Amino acid sequence: MKGDIESAVEILRKGGVLAVPTDTLYGLAASAFNVDAVERIFKIKGRPEDMAMPLLLASPDDLSQCAVDVPGYAWGLIDRFWPGALTLVLKRSDIVPDIVTAGRETVALRVPDHPVPRAIARELGGPITGTSANRNGKIGIAVAEDVRREFGDEIDLVVESDTPLVGVASTVLDLTSSVPAILRAGAVDIESIRAVCPQVTALSEPIIESLC
């Protein structure tokens, strides 16, 4: 596995694109700060550029690299659910490129409960993109061979997972307004979130898709 991580990081440093396992689904990874590489993912997926790109972090300690004005109650959620299948939408830092956030002032962040993406981000020294490895509008993929069949040589490497993936996307929670709101139901159920953050609400219609 160490060799896979080293190869993956080398590819990302050269502006490449990978498929990496997470605890939920396979994701398409590029260095988050490499605009050309992120743009390549949009083209591979057929993803509209007005749809923001989520990011995966190596550790909760890396949050300040990408987010500012983090509300105090967020840390209880982070302590409970990171690493894990909860994506938090927060106010972005200036270092996050506009292409990642689709020009918005927010960014979606997660620390996945899988050693591969965390190790890649750690060795790279910065976050990686975490959009699900599928064409825009199609379901996410949880098996490496299915990723290869879908994308072929459009991506530079598929990193194998030693363990099966859950196959259910992360839950997305917006922490940028006065009342935290679930934007997408997923692997973490709302009652578990409310046990930590009782004021959370759930939107009737999901508005964020294509995150792993």
Short description:
With 212 residues, the chain is of the alpha/beta class.
Give the amount of beta strand, in percent: 15-25%
Q: Would you report the number of β strands? A: 12
User: What's the CATH class label?
Assistant: Alpha Beta
Provide the gyration radius in Å: 16 Å
Mean of residue pLDDT? 94
CATH architecture: Alpha-Beta Complex
Helix and strand content put the structural class at alpha/beta
Poorly predicted ranges (pLDDT <50, ≥5 residues)? none
CATH superfamily: DHBP synthase
Task: Estimate the helix proportion, in percent.
Answer: 25-40%
Could you characterize the architecture of this molecule?
Helix content is 30%, strand content 19%. The chain has 8 helices and 12 strands. The chain has helices at 2-13, 35-45, 63-66, 74-81, 98-101, 115-124, 144-151, 190-196; strands spanning 18-21, 26-29, 55-56, 67-68, 86-92, 106-110, 128-129, 131-132, 157-158, 171-174, 181-184, 201-202. Strands 3, 4, 5, 6, 7, 10, 11 and 12 form an 8-stranded mixed sheet that branches. Strands 8-2-1-9 form a 4-stranded mixed sheet. It is globular and about 45 Å long.
SSE inventory with pairings:
Elements lengths: L1 H12 L4 E4 L4 E4 L5 H11 L9 E2 L6 H4 E2 L5 H8 L4 E7 L5 H4 L4 E5 L4 H10 L3 E2 L1 E2 L11 H8 L5 E2 L12 E4 L6 E4 L5 H7 L4 E2 L10
